[in-house]
Design goal:
globular, alpha/beta, single chain, about 190 residues, 6-stranded parallel beta sheet, about 15% strand
Length: about 190
Amino acid sequence: MIKKAKNLKMRRKIKLGIACAPENDTTKYFYIHGYNSTGFETAKNIEKLGIEVEVLGWDSRADFEINFQNLCVKLPKKGDFKIIATSLGCYYARAIAEKNCCDLVLFNPCFDPQNYDFIAERKSYNHKFNPMLTVPMSIFVSQSDEVLVNNVEKVKELFGGCCYIEVTNERHRITDFSKYKDTILKDSWL
């Protein structure tokens, strides 16, 4: 009965023109927010696509290792899951993927937080990413980002040739994820 209700609900959404995740998609989606954010507003914007996401929160005042360990504990030990992240949340997402091997969709990533004075615990962000480690990852990085200036070059230098990178003209905070829906739902980017 529950499955029939879900199917009916999805058919109604499709009829109303609301984008939905495929019915057979068993992937669990997590969202990791950026610095000084809760992530709930962005999660709502992602959920407008019909993709249910669980926000993984972290404390902007705590150091990297404490936040990293707390985030890892919140993830499933098994199963198919994908992490969507923005800004400094991408730093955590990539570190998690190197440990837990999961797919990533990253928006305006901050991979060099130690270079930004507004980040309180920036000295604790000393994780060394392994660009040679294959992680199924799509990165959308804006050439118009008003917070992370010249970020396109930094991202390409770090991960160019190792994953899908698309240059956009978005502001730092993205509110409309509709043009990224296919990439978010894609099985893999390898």
